[in-house]
Amino acid sequence: MFYNLSHCNIAGKLPHTDFTMQLIHLFWQPTLAAFDNSGQLYLWIEQANIKHSHGVSSARTTSANDYPYQAGSQKLIDFSVEFLGNVQQQLTPCQLPVQLPCNAEGDAIASPLITNITDLKDCKFAAFKCFSLNVLQVSQPLAFLKELNFTSYHFDDDTMLAGDALFWIKMAYELSDVIKKDQYVPKLFLAKNSTNKAIDSSPIPVNKVEKYHTKWQLVSASYSERLSLIAKHMPSSACLGEFSDFEQESTLHHFSDVLLNEIVNNTSFTQKTYKSVSNSFVEQALDSNISDVSDDAAKATQLWQNSLHADQFGNAFVICFKLLEASAENSNDWGLELLLQSKVDPSFMVNLAKYWQTKSQQTQLHLKMFGSDIERTILLQLGYACRVYPLIEQAIEQLLRVKQNRQAQSPSLLPISLAQAFDFLKEDAWALHASGYRIIVPAWWTTKGRIKAKLKLRVRKPNGESNADNSVINSQIGTENLIKFDYRYALGNHEVSADQWQQLLQVKADLVYFRGDWIELDHAEMKNMQSLIETSERDMNSPDLQTLMRYQADDLYTVELDDATEQMLTALHDRDKLVEIAVPDALNATLRPYQQRGLSWLVYLENLGMNPCLADDMGLGKTMQIIALMLAKPKSQAALLIVPTSVIGNWYKELAVFAPSITAIIHHGSKRKQHEKFSQMLANSQIVITSFG
User: How many CB atoms lie within 10 A of CB 643?
Assistant: First the structure.
């Protein structure tokens, strides 16, 4: 299929009168030159305008070479102004010839979605044909794709992203991730006719100086593996031009290389960055895209690049760092175990010391799992790791002593302190993993197993008994009916007293051993939790439902609900509970459909004890919906209706006309009842109308 639009779930729906459907497409077009390969990202809009009769499309253009199901140039500009204002200056309108599918008659074939809503008959693919396409050229693809992704959530119902646009948005995030990890290096390319021939009659060889172009390339085996997987799902419409076929994986590498070089060349680096690479080839590459480089320097650079490439793509194994936790008796007895992990079978891992001890007896097994030249690769990988994690230098020193036969035991464990272990978990492990090394940490540090200091909240809703219809009794607002929180300190599943919590706050370590588990302490967050409890107890605060839902979403809080509160929250998230109710028979009016939905929503929240707020615009009939609510959910006590003075009379009259079964009285002005007469009036009324004054 030419377009991958399986995500569009509107097949079979007939278009409305004067209905317009438009799909936002993106495609990459490579420009292949002798040396400087480049490319461009383009946006175009596929559309079908349906006028009155089903199957008659107005998406026709005057030129026979124009693709018939596309938006014009002005439509593209209008779209960019309306939805892409933040990046509009990056878009340039133009026309491009591209190969698109057509049927046996030579007529263009639209995407399945447009074909469906226009009821096109002959959509059988026969060949490709060159059409002229109105496009917007994108000058900064990564920034544009992120903006388009955000903007797409605000599209109208008749506008959506096509499969190719979604694909390139996904690619933008993949590429951004590898660039943020700095997994790219400069590479030299010899410029043609660049040799500076020195005039020298001396027979001594001269170190020639050549002109080289510098281009940046990604060095990440994991990213290349990702591209191989992503390429299998690349829509055919994601790469267009005056060709009908392309190689998906090569196109993705081309897209990545072009955008990487554009970003690096257009970035203004700080002095700190230049200082970190001073007197190196990288500094020279940052300064200029073309350089005079001697033969010796070029050969040394090429050797460095080959080693990097071999380390990323040629090795059959990778160094794995496994953190071993300390015992309860000695909190500084941590260690990093060094393992060799096979890429052929990742489950096959060997301790570095064990490998050294058994290498002569298990040569064939190691050759199968780890490849050849194992010792050199170990030294290279540990050497690179030193740049990220300097403590590994200890392992290298021990390895060198082993190779020089000055020490029998090879390194398998790096001893580290409690503070170093915490730094490894928080920072160094991430940096090593981003550099391609494997990391194994204890289960208690994983997302599921991590134990933290937190608050336990027991939530109860006083007077929250339920009726048979699952509604909550006493839903009117009152201090006795608000949500109540009982706070408890906890470390994981263990509750602790306020005194124990205070003792933990005074511990300076970030990791503590508590009741059989290592637990991370965030002292600042723990102080905030302590302040929350103390403030709540001092001020007698009653949290609201919004606070409760925020606590439920935060992993620093464990929320335990009583039956009434749990039932209320379950119903709140269950949309099936929101059902359309019948208009009360006692209402002398016909509700519009939106008013009936509003009434159903009001009753739904009333049943939950939520005390709803109706905020329709003026003139849409809020009064009628509230009157209907009073009939649908009569109260055991008189309801208080507070309105502006100017509409007191209007409310009284409308109640009499549309709900004569409701007894209403006005409590306002000098004739207001007092004391016993007021109590008697309440007993004989269902609604008391008053004002703010």
Answer: 16
Q: What span, in angstroms and rounded, lies between the C-alpha atoms of 496 and 482?
A: 27
Quick one: pLDDT at residue 645? 86
| Alpha carbons 450 and 518: distance in angstroms, whole number | 9
364-370: long-range pairs with CB below 8 Å, 24+: 368/344, 369/316, 369/317, 369/342, 369/344, 369/345, 370/316, 370/317, 370/340, 370/342
Tell me what pLDDT residue 197 has. 41
Q: What is the pLDDT of residue 15?
A: 37
Strand ranges for 219-266 from DSSP E: none
What Cα–Cα distance (Å) separates residue 308 from each residue in 174, 221, 244, 303, 384?
A: 21, 11, 36, 9, 9
Residue 438 Cα distances to 222, 271, 327, angstroms: 12, 33, 24
Please give the Cα distance from 453 to 493 (Å, whole number): 9
CA distances from 136 to 44, 72, 156, 259 (A): 6, 11, 20, 18
Write down the residue that tokens 């949500």 correspond to.
483
Q: For residue 272, give the amino acid letter.
A: K
Sorted by sequence, the CB contacts under 8 Å of residue 232 that are 6+ apart come out as 248
Residue 619 has which token pair?
């003139």
Give the residues across from 689 on adjacent strands. Answer: 641, 666
19-31 and 159-161 strand pairing:
parallel
533: amino acid identity, one letter: I
Question: Residue 220: which of 259, 185, 258 has the closest Cα?
Answer: 185
Q: What is the pLDDT of residues 345-389, one digit of tens each?
A: 888 999 888 888 788 888 888 888 888 888 888 888 888 888 888
For residue 24, the one-letter residue type is I
Q: Show the tokens assigned to 580.
A: 């359309």
Q: What is the largest CA-CA distance in the chain?
A: 125
Distance, in Å, from the CA atom of 422 to the CA atom of 434, rounded to the nearest integer, reads 18
Q: Which residues of the chain have pLDDT under 50?
A: 1-18, 34-35, 50-62, 195-206, 406-408, 464-481
Name the β-bridge partners of 419: none
DSSP class of residue 243 equals B
**DSSP 8-state secondary structure symbol assigned to residue 362:** S
Phi-psi region of 665 (alpha: psi -120 to 50; beta: other; left: phi over 0): beta
Edge to edge, the sheet with strand 184-190 lists 184-190, 209-218, 290-294
β-bridge mates for residue 619, sequence order: none
DSSP 452: B
Q: What are phi and psi of 391, to 5 degrees?
A: -60, -20
